[in-house]
Amino acid sequence: MNQPHLASYLRSHRKRSGLSQREVAQLLGYPDQGPVSRHERLCSVPPLMIALSYQAIFRVPVSDLFPGVYEATRQAIEERLAKMEHDLEQCSAKGRNAAMIARKLEWMWERQNQDQPESIHASEVE
Amino acid sequence: MHPKSNDRRILAIALRSRRFGFAVFEGPNRLLDWGMVFYPLNNDVQRAAASKRVTSLLTLYIPSVVVVGRTRLLNVRSGSGVCPILRSIRGESSSRSIPVHVMKSAEVRASFHRFRAKSKHEIASLVAQMFPELLWKLPPKRRIWESEHPIMAMFDAVAIGFAYWQHDGGRDPTAD
């Protein structure tokens, strides 16, 4: 049986580090542990700066810290891209516009054929 | 460390009369969460809070099976804190269609025999070696006149989870 992705591995990484929620909150600049607890339970999604801070603290890519959220976002993007590709293919344009559409379709084709980037790595962010 | 969605998650629980230890596994080699929950006897409010903690663990980790270590307390003290907690574990699990597997302590011990770990402390030490993140929590060896350290329930939960993987880990409980 394939189990669904866990929404967040934040708690797991924090516990492995031995840090308390209060200590992680301190590192993130929060006055108390409340937001960290909410992020662990995914009662609230952390803002971009905080998500990157988690990546910096645990040295784990954001997409691995929140695989459930990442997978849901990725699927939504893939669906929208497929729709956009379909719309572009149906589009009848001439001259400059046709070249632009061709470029977009080419990029989408390249994108489909290239390997899926597993995650954003810490080194890339730095 | 990349999470693998095909690794089953299990929630292992070791019950005591006033507390329980828990451990969440994803696959046999990855420990996601662990800890202790305390509940005093004859306090329904706090016992309800302990049940709520089980609910939150089930909600957070969505395990494919809950493994509970069988304890003598289940036989002799029907009115103790253990039975209501086990009832609530069964109730919460069944409402989520999660099977509950009760594991005998003999089965748990048998899983560690091949590692030559027989006593509780030897088993806990072995568990701490397998999962180094627990090493700092390992209590010193109990002396004959001392009572068991409360944290041992957590090590028992990890041992129960490990034993489950050894015995039934290859079998999908939802496949039946």
Describe this structure in words.
- The complex is a heterodimer of chains A (about 130) and B (about 180).
- Chain A has about 130 residues and is an all-alpha fold.
- Helices cover about 65% and strands about 0% of the residues of chain A.
- Chain A has 8 helices and no strands.
- In chain A, helix 2 (about 20-30) crosses helix 3 and helix 6 runs antiparallel to helix 7 (about 95-115).
- Chain A is elongated, with a radius of gyration of 20 Å.
- The model of chain A is unreliable at about 120-125 (pLDDT under 50).
- Chain B has about 180 residues and is an alpha/beta fold.
- In chain B, about 40% of the residues lie in helices and about 20% in strands.
- Chain B contains 6 helices and 5 strands; from the N terminus they run E-E-E-H-E-H-H-E-H-H-H.
- Chain B has helices at about 45-60, 75, 80-95, 105-115, 120-130, 150-165; strands spanning about 10-15, 20-25, 30-40, 65-70, 100-105.
- Chain B has a 5-stranded mixed beta sheet with strand order 3-2-1-4-5.
- In chain B, helix 1 (about 45-60) runs parallel beside helix 3 (about 80-95) and helix 5 crosses helix 6.
- Chain B is globular, with a radius of gyration of 16 Å.
- The termini of chain B are far apart.
- Mean pLDDT of chain B is about 85; it is low at about 1-5.
- The interface of A and B includes residues 4, 12, 15 and 60 of A.
Search tags:
heterodimer; A: 126 residues; mainly alpha; 0% strand; elongated; disordered C terminus; B: 176 residues; alpha/beta; 5-stranded mixed beta sheet; 6 helices; globular; disordered N terminus
